[in-house]
User: What shape does this take?
Amino acid sequence: MAIVLRTLRHHHRYLTFLLSSTIVLFCFHFQNSVVIFTYNSYFRYVSEPAPCACATCALDRGRADGFSARYEPTVHLLLNSSNSELRADVFGWWKGLQNVTSVANYTSVVKNLFPLFSDKEHYSDAGPDRCRTCAVVGNSGNLLRSHYGPLIDSNDFVVRINKGPTGGFEKDVGSRTTHRIMYPESSVDVDNSTHLVLSPFKMLDIEWLISAFTTKNITKTYMNVSSTIQANKDKVMILHPEFMKYVYVNWTDSHGRYPSTGFLTLMFALHICDEVNVFGFGATKAGQWHHYFDETLTLYVNESHAGDFEYQTILRLEQEKRIVMFKGWT
Ligand code: C5P
Assistant: This one.
């Protein structure tokens, strides 16, 4: 009996030892994880604070994808008098989009821009305290019956493209417009609070902008255009040709001849906003850019644009959580 009791006591001690060492080891391991976790969070916080104050920042560099290799935060986004001189490669590319134009011609036209329009540096206020949201509204027919209107209007900036109207479509596309990107052939009047943003695909587009606010003598480009435009002169902006080339090379991998206005607009938003919400992008199954407001259909792969490649890039940006896509109905 004594032997049995001694054996049981021995086993009991052995089990207690085993149990306590497991608990100690477990706690040690757990504590270690907490230490590592806290250290990592602290280290990340100290060395790399969040780039903006939104819940998810489009520009968060902590993510492992190809975005940072392509994204150039210092690219010239908008033309002003101090950055209007073009690098030779930029001028060469831009010149290639149009009938030949000379540097001298460009310089003499651009000289007239900034006495006329505001010459400010815009959107250099990015930082950890800013959370600016952008709705980029393309013209796709997938907006019809979407009921996205209030969602679109809830963004700080609502950026529209070309002729995309709001009147009569408010339920699906919203009613606010802070920026409208256009070129002479797609121009429409905007109200006093909206930034008219010219996307100059050619020299004549800049000349037209000047003329529309002054002499009104340009009435034709490759087609008849409006000789005038209603817009707040102090809110006019002009995309920089350097930005247009950057989007073409870095983001469309030089597919097509030049990026579509919609794709340029989306990239513009990624450079001025911290959170980018994308609406109204997406062709029909047959590869046509249809509109929510008229019956026109344009093949999205054509002599100018690589719409399919642009769309794949947009889907990749969505997957990488750089943008949020609202795909609508069709
Ligand atoms: O037709 P429009 O060029 O005015 O449309 C503006 C932009 O919206 C296009 O440049 C394109 O990027 C986008 N779009 C689209 N799918 C459509 C129609 C337009 O992605 N069905």
Remarks:
- The chain has two domains: 2-47, 67-326.
- Strands lie at 133-137, 157-161, 179-182, 195-198, 237-238, 275-279, 288-290, 297-299, 324-326.
- The pocket of cytidine-5'-monophosphate is lined by residues 138-141, 161-162, 260-263, 281-283, 289-291 (CB under 6 Å).
